[in-house]
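Sequence and structure are no longer studied apart. As an example, we show below a sequence and the tokens encoding its fold:
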Amino acid sequence: MNKDKFNRSIDNINVPVEKLMAREKAATFQAKKKRKVGRITKRSILVACGLCISLLGSGFVSTGMAEALSNIPLIGPIYKDFRDIASDKIEHDQLTTVIDKQDSKNGLTMTVKEAAYDGSRLIVTVVYTGKKELSMKEEKAGFSYITINGQQEIKPAIGSTGQDDINSKTIIEHHQFTFSKYNEFGDNIEIEVHGENLFGYEGKLKVAFPLEKIKGDVLEFYPEVTTETVDDVYKLTADKVTFSPLSTRIDLTIDYPAEMDKNDTWPWFDFSVVDDNGQVYDKLKLQAGMVVGNYGHHMVLTLPPMDTIPKSFTLKPSRQNSEGFSEEIKELELVVPLNKSK
């Protein structure tokens, strides 16, 4: 995306963007192999910002939330303040596992409060407290990351870390990932939360803990329906729809001419999703990402978890036109029936 298109996209976002992007310390979106750093960076800026909207909403923790955090040991409703896509379900069904483990060094304490995992998504909530004030300035923020089962790096389809300060000595951090494929890490996982030189404090912190997948129904559908443009340039296939406790996941295959792989011009489609009852999922109710190394061929859409399974979804893809505005691609609109479950 060129600079002008990016600026127009930012202008259309109805949130306090400067504060939002400053607080989205480590938003990550990996669409390609690492060697294609330039394109990753350009896409990351915009996708991370979109993810900021999903996770942080207004970018502030409410006064009531700050009071609640000061009086109770667990985070609980914080997921609504971070606009997590599963926040209502998490609160209603109490889906998180209490961790409450910590590590301290040089006056900074990192406490993992809660976590939730359903095979498709992982959510981890961390609280940092310091003996002196914690700095949210970019140059002093340091970095934090999560590993699973001893792996060096999680390569999710969608991933983000959002932060907010509760008071001058307390910062809350919300990690969330949608994995490249459902259940790629198994039913029981080992998690390590790492922090290095955080918020003006020097030193490394680490909290390790086991986490079990949420017990609950998981329904998988294999619609395998396809549509394509009349000129055969693009083809869209809905491979799988997975309903799990923390999300509704739609796995898509996008086909396009081979030369787009070679010259790195593969398409990025935005989506809205409508169920058979007319409920629309977009903006805060939809996240999208690409599986690493697949050059845009494998796309994942994440919607909120659902107690009632719709009869179908209609996928409505769009792309930015030459003027930077979004236009629906009617030829690729796809009805996804949910009648072939496994």
